[in-house]
User: Which sequence fits this backbone?
């Protein structure tokens, strides 16, 4: 079992999750996540060495529908929900080349 | 308040002896009288519903064939897509979003003549057990407004309990239909994974989520299941088979069925709940069933496994809420800053906590220790059930360890809240069927629900047991 979760790890995970947490949130999250992960130590009592992980409840493979032509979503309706759209596309802030 | 069952409404409206408009107006009157106090809905779609009811009445008058749910009023949890009607998941991040398509379940209900009265409140993104996590404020339990209705489908449960609609739909990832059904005195069904299409259900835990009905009777729940179940080519996890036939099994009784009693049931249930469970076993025995002892040693580890598997899946599913295609955007200098600011402003505390836990459990260096282990525990639970079902046809447990609790009782301690789902979670992990049936009352004269568990695709047996419990209660 890894070491208890640190404040630095919580801050790193927040970056991975694209969540801007306040300093106070990072503090609170560190305590709460540590509590939950500690609870998970219960399972150390189990011998899991020969157990196959269960990724999905019902084993189905490649259930494919027939390739029948059908209308897709209405473009205007979809773009009408976007925070910003232009020329029939979603508009986003700069991705690269932004100078600090 | 006038109580009508789904079966009665559908039969009488189709026969022309009751108008869909009258049924709807009764529900709208109940909404006018109590919705301010209860807050079951995020939106009431009265105008659309009136148009729809008028259309059904016109069809009946013109002698046209109407569907199996003609005039039946239905409330939908606000995490199911309804074309052109705001769908928010009770989150600020989706406020104002009008889906460009209907969920398969919504479409099937509409095709059979259902009348939708509105979208119901939930714990944000279905994460919670009390509906206290909604960004739009809590829902109150119509049976005692100082108490929670349960969650996460608390609005859907409250809507039916308050007579705002004849039935409603929720989603169940770890107990979010069954627990509020128990706390509000209703029948609530979590179908076998893959029996009901998830298309248009905003995903929380994709390997766990199922849509199911809330109703006041077992027969109503059976009819609603027959309508929504069955293969959907647009959901790749949908089982390739037709809907189960359930209405015709209800009169069969339980003679000859073997009902499992879990001898190593996780502790912590209140005595009033356990007394009702004992009474339920007695009733089934009197009706000709055999009660057999079974063991589910991994059941108590279900909660632990679930609180890694579900957040892990959620952290991945909720990545789509990024301020690009729908909902809230907080403007910032570049794309990454916009993502971080939008998600910080749009998600509530519980959702942030689960995204963080899930992201951590899936991140490099921790995957094997947490997520990988949780998946193995999931397998142990499924194996335990498989062994138990060699000895019995269905299992009875409490649905919730207690009757409806008071507001604020569990909000300061996430783990205490998570314990509400100790009996319901294992079903989702195994992918099996389960339902809650009201069976008398406990503390403060509040309803107690008994949970009927059945193996995958055991819906027919499960409904036979549920019908017997209803007859005996």
Assistant:
């Amino acid at each position: 079992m890894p070491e208890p979760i640190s404040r630095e790890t919580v801050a790193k995970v927040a970056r991975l999750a694209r969540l801007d947490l306040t300093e106070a949130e990072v503090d609170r999250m560190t305590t709460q996540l540590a509590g939950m992960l500690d609870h998970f130590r219960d399972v150390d009592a189990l011998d899991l060495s020969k157990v196959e992980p269960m990724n999905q409840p019902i084993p189905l493979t490649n259930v494919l529908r027939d390739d029948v032509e059908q209308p897709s979503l209405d473009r205007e309706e979809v773009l009408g929900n976007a925070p910003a759209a232009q020329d029939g596309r979603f508009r986003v802030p700069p991705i690269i080349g932004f100078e600090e | 308040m006038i109580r009508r069952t789904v079966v009665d409404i559908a039969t009488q409206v189709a026969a022309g002896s009751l108008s869909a408009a009258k049924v709807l107006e009764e529900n709208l009157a109940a909404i006018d009288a109590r919705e301010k106090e209860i807050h079951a809905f995020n939106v009431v779609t009265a105008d659309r519903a009136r148009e729809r009811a008028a259309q059904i009445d016109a069809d009946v008058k013109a002698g046209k064939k109407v569907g199996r749910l003609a005039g039946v009023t239905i409330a939908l949890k606000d995490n199911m897509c309804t074309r052109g009607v705001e769908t928010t998941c009770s989150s600020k991040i989706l406020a104002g979003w009008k889906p460009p398509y209907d969920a398969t379940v919504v479409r099937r209900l509409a095709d059979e003549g259902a009348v939708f009265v509105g979208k119901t409140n939930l714990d944000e993104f279905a994460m919670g057990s009390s509906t206290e996590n909604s960004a739009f404020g809590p829902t109150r339990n119509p049976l005692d407004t100082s108490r929670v209705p349960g969650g996460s489908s608390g609005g859907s449960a409250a809507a039916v309990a308050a007579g705002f609609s004849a039935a409603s739909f929720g989603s169940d990832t770890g107990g979010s239909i069954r627990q509020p059904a128990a706390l509000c005195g209703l029948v609530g069904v979590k179908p076998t994974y893959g029996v009901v299409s998830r298309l248009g259900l905003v995903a929380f835990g994709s390997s766990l989520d199922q849509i199911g009905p809330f109703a006041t009777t077992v027969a109503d729940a059976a009819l609603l299941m027959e309508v929504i179940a069955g293969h959907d080519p647009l959901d790749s996890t949908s089982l390739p088979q037709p809907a189960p036939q359930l209405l015709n099994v209800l009169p069969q009784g339980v003679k000859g069925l073997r009902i499992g009693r879990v001898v190593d049931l996780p502790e912590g249930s209140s005595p009033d709940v356990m007394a009702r469970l004992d009474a339920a076993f007695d009733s089934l025995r009197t009706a000709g069933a055999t009660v057999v002892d079974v063991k589910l040693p991994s059941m108590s580890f279900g909660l632990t496994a679930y609180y890694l598997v579900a957040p892990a899946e959620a952290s991945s599913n909720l990545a789509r809420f990024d301020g690009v295609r729908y909902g809230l955007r907080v403007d910032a200098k570049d794309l990454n800053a916009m993502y971080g600011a939008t998600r910080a402003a749009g998600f509530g505390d519980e959702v942030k906590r689960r995204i963080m836990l899930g992201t951590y459990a899936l991140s490099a260096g921790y995957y094997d220790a947490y997520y990988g282990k949780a998946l193995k525990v999931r397998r142990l639970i499924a194996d335990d059930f498989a062994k138990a079902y060699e000895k019995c046809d269905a299992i009875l447990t409490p649905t919730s360890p207690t009757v409806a609790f008071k507001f604020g009782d569990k909000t300061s301690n996430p783990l205490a809240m998570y314990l509400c789902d100790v009996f319901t979670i294992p079903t989702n992990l195994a992918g099996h069927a389960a339902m809650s049936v009201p069976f008398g009352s406990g503390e403060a004269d509040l309803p107690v629900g008994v949970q009927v568990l059945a193996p995958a695709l055991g819906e027919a047996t499960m409904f036979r047991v549920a019908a017997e419990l209803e007859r005996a209660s």
Summary: Chain A touches chain B through 55 residues (CB under 8 Å). Chain A has a mean pLDDT of 89. Residues 22 and 74 of chain A are 39 Å apart (CA to CA). Chain A has three helices and two strands.
